[in-house]
Amino acid sequence: MRGFSHIMALTVTLVMLLGCGAAQHLPTTTEKVVTIVKDSLVIRTDTLRIPVPVESHTNVTVQQSFLETSVASSTASIDSLGLLHHNLENKQTSLTTNVTYVDRYVTQIDTVYKDVLRYQDVEVIKYKVPRWCWYLLVFNILVAIALGVYTYLKIKVKTLL
Is this prediction's pTM over 0.70? Predict the structure, then answer.
């Protein structure tokens, strides 16, 4: 009986050691980087002051003088007492101009997404059992069955006698 238990323990151990494994999928984490480029145009308008052009028109008589430019006019006269009277007036003109600037702003935003789970196939080493091991296993199983039958019959015959 003791030999039978040793053979069964050997057979069970051999079967457990020769078990085959299945392919395993291990989750891996990857980083996904998304780059967003935002291109924007900003239009702004500034007012510029333009210097007054130098120009003059004169009209002079004996008693009166008249000067004029595109932005002002002046009148001078002498009265009967010999006094000089002078008058200077600005015209209702505007010498400003608008200049339009187009500014371009390029904004780059990098967004990193982490912990994206993907399953990656991992190669599992699968050992190929030689044919002689299978024959030895079958032989051990048959011997174990034969010993079991022999022991059963031996105990049965002893109880019958």
Answer: no
